[in-house]
Amino acid sequence: MKMIKQLSLLMAMGVTVISLQGCSPEVGTKAWCEELKEKPKGDWTANEAKDFAKSCIF
Question: Which of 12, 14, 22, 27 is deepest in the core (most CB within 10 A)?
């Protein structure tokens, strides 16, 4: 019974993570550019910086 509760909890956590990932705007869109502008530049990944330069500046 304990194992079933643990599996249920893990599944619920997985669904929550998957649903949160769907909330981010698509890379390169105006909404994504605006979201990234608000994020501290020190928290940007290298890929975000590259995509921002390619999609939002040029």
Answer: 27
Tens of each residue's pLDDT in the chain, 58 residues: 777 777 777 777 665 445 556 788 999 999 999 999 999 999 999 999 999 999 999 7
- What is the rounded CA–CA span in Å between residue 34 and residue 53? 13
Are 44 and 52 contacting, i.e. CB atoms less than 8 angstroms apart?
Answer: yes
- The residues, any chain, with a CB within 8 Å of residue 52's CB and separated by 6 or more, are 33, 36, 44
Single pTM value for the model? 0.58
Range of the domain at 38: 2-57
Task: Please check whether residue 32 is in contact with residue 25, taking contact to mean a CB–CB distance below 8 angstroms.
Answer: yes
Number of domains in the chain: 1
